[in-house]
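User: Could you check the structure of this?
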Amino acid sequence: MGTLFYGSRADPIHIEERALAHLKVVIATKLRRQESFTLSWRHSNGDVGGRSTIWLHPSIPLRFTFDESEPPQLNPKWIEALAQSASSTGGITLVDEVIDAPVD
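Assistant: Sure, the predicted structure tokens are below.
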């Protein structure tokens, strides 16, 4: 499980490690451009039900931590889907991984 620490929040945000690795790419790109945006996700199993949204801003400290020492191989299609949602008025929504269907 990966962890996102945002601002002075005492409670960390737990996101599946592979998803967090992909989010990190999109978030870092937007923050590097000095863009502010929201990030929304559904609570994982074991957490209180529902969903959360945070406002991300370049001036607010942000730290990603991963349990695995090696980063996963990134899926460009998933990054693209996350980046498209990041450019929408609703901000980044953590969508399921985009996997190409096998060609018959």
